[in-house]
Amino acid sequence: MNASINNIRNKIAEKGLKVTPQRMSILEAIYNLENHPTVEQIIEFIRKKHPNIATGTVYKVLDTLVSNDLVKKVKTEKDIMRYDGLIENHHHLYCVVCDHIEDYMNAELDEILKRFFEENKIDNFIIEDIKLQINGRFIIHKNVNR
Amino acid sequence: MNASINNIRNKIAEKGLKVTPQRMSILEAIYNLENHPTVEQIIEFIRKKHPNIATGTVYKVLDTLVSNDLVKKVKTEKDIMRYDGLIENHHHLYCVVCDHIEDYMNAELDEILKRFFEENKIDNFIIEDIKLQINGRFIIHKNVNR
DNA sequence: TTTTAAAAGAGAATGATTCTCATTAAAGAA
DNA sequence: TTCTTTAATGAGAATCATTCTCTTTTAAAA
Ligand SMILES: [Mn+2]
Ligand SMILES: [Mn+2]
Ligand SMILES: [Zn+2]
Ligand SMILES: [Zn+2]
Question: CB–CB of A133 and B135 under 8 A?
Fold first, then answer.
């Protein structure tokens, strides 16, 4: 998920969006921050190098990035919105202890699910995608507090 | 998921909670409302018969019900909290068109998942439960607007 | 360099949720 | 049944993340 400055510039430009320093730093922040950062964490990261960015701009840019499929929103059991720089469809491990969210990808699992739902059609419903929310606990936690 | 007045009273009492008219009507509302109602819908329903219930009380009671495992919170892609009267572990169909959420239960699927993760342990993580978020579209929608 | 539409900045507004504190009522004891 | 205690409720203020409004700035194309 690392991306160079030019990489980031291209991703934004490819969508036909104006390449602004704000958009660049927000996308850069999401790629650099731990995993699935909150808006608060994104703002904190950006203000190190770009102290005057407006809060409203961060929200607006995030919306733009989401609707252009450059980032995705991730919801937790709790009420905090998080953002995900990995846009390929994937699953998540949710730690009930420390709130850490980790990506989970497994092609075999996706194949099993695909087969299951081909054989078990749901009346009146067309599936577009399936995401697993795998709740549990890591043996070693990231931030024991909060 | 239907429950008589006495049923509801017992559910609350069994948890060692005081049986108040407010708690009764909120639990009754969740059982009676469509599917996975929002706080707004719950308040609207209750005020028909109990016009003076305070908004803060509804939030407080909902928290109490959730922490006593009488109802569950359900998150949507969007930013609206919903409540679920079905407390057994189950999956959800999310309609991307009309926001309707429908329960999905299938013992065979759960068995397949159980077996898969027994054979594919995740390093450093102990699974407690797995929920599928099945996104797609119903052929017939509930509320085409909103 | 100039033009122009889109984006950003500043700060007010919104709205769902939480908080505070005085009043009320459920549940158990007498 | 009445009393006592403690938790729950009501009313409205406070909070806080997010959105909105409006002015200024700027990226991109001419
Ligand atoms: Mn992810
Ligand atoms: Mn449900
Ligand atoms: Zn953890
Ligand atoms: Zn629908």
Answer: no
Query: Is the full-model pTM beyond 0.85?
Result: yes
Round to a whole number and report the distance in Å from the CA of B17 to the C1' of C29: 19
CATH 1.10.10.10 residue ranges for chain A = 5-84
Helix (H) or strand (E) holding B48: helix B39-49
- CATH 3.30.1490.190 maps onto chain B at 91-136
Residues A25-37, mean pLDDT to the nearest whole number: 93
Fold of A91-136: Dna Ligase; domain 1 (3.30.1490)
Closest CA to B78 of B58, B62, B56, B101: B101
Residues of B in contact with A104 (CB under 8 A): 122
Residue range B87-99: average pLDDT? 90
Q: Record the tokens describing residue A79, joined without a space.
A: 């009420």
Structure tokens at A81: 């919105």
* Separation of CA A57 and ligand 1 centre (Å): 24
**pLDDT tens-digit readout, B9-54:** 999 999 999 999 999 999 999 999 978 999 999 999 999 989 999 9
Q: Over the stretch A49-68, which tens digit does the pLDDT of each residue have?
A: 899 999 999 999 999 999 99
Residue ranges near ligand 1 (ion) with Cβ within 5 Å: A 84, 86, 103
